[in-house]
Specification:
The structure is a homodimer. Chain A is mainly alpha-helical. Chain A contains six helices and two strands. The first copy, chain A, has a single domain, classed as Orthogonal Bundle (Arc Repressor Mutant, subunit A). Helices cover 65% and strands 7% of the residues of chain A. The first copy, chain A, has a two-stranded antiparallel sheet with strand order 1-2. Chain A is globular. The structure holds a DNA duplex.
Chain lengths: 140, 140
Amino acid sequence: MSKKIYFSTIHQIIKTGHWITDSVSSELKPFDISEPQYNVLRTLNSQQHQPLTVEQIGKQMIQRSSNVTRIIDKLLGKGLVSRKECPSNRRKMDIMITPEGRNFLRELDVKLAQWHSPLLNKLTDEELQTLTRLIRKLRK
Amino acid sequence: MSKKIYFSTIHQIIKTGHWITDSVSSELKPFDISEPQYNVLRTLNSQQHQPLTVEQIGKQMIQRSSNVTRIIDKLLGKGLVSRKECPSNRRKMDIMITPEGRNFLRELDVKLAQWHSPLLNKLTDEELQTLTRLIRKLRK
DNA sequence: GAACTATTATTGTATATACAAATGTTGTTA
DNA sequence: TAACAACATTTGTATATACAATAATAGTTC
């Protein structure tokens, strides 16, 4: 494997990842919410009406609990999530998305769908599968 | 194009990008240098003995000048780069890597080459080219 | 050449994140 | 049960980064 092509490829991967998250951040900016805050909301929403602990959120987001705590502090201040002691284990915290959070998230998702929309047809399903397969192979 | 596959793919891209930069950061940690600081050093070194301005470094790193300034502050404190007013245009700053910086960078590169080494043969040249082509196609 | 504009770097501020340390709760074991 | 270990969250601290504002120099135009 040529080193030159290898380094050029991983550079592309890193750059593209940044491009996507930076773009999402820009779309969210008018709503005064950050991309990590949005991801916490989405994670909570995917659980329907079940709470998640700080640790569980961190696992899903590949984030340290300490940092999840601070993101939740921000969301709490906006009334988008609730946090209360877990009754069965008082070390844990039950974090849930509030109805306001759910409504807000719907707005954000509409906006972001518009950003993703033109990308949806850049690659065929087969190409996407190849892309995913090759990236996974690189890490395996 | 299936939305499900699309979102799974971009998620993979973002995750893999983070995996690479986080791994590089870990390798650099024993040397007490951050990944962005390392990237500035590399950028300066690629210019041989020509200085670069703050803006030029920022362009290459896809970084804002304001943040490049602060990274250079750190490198200055370690004696790895020099910063002086550009004689022909006193708004600009001439940033250069010092001999110590160059030696240090060589050490870092050896260490990082060891990290990349096992990845070099995960994909064939052809697969790498396909990967790069598909990622580029997604953004185009 | 004076007034205005553009360029370049820096500083200020808010958010995110890595890592270490601290706090409080639960589980274990002597 | 008392002492200790493990777990879950939070707080502290340093770095990076986005964005806005500032400062200083250079270029432009009247």
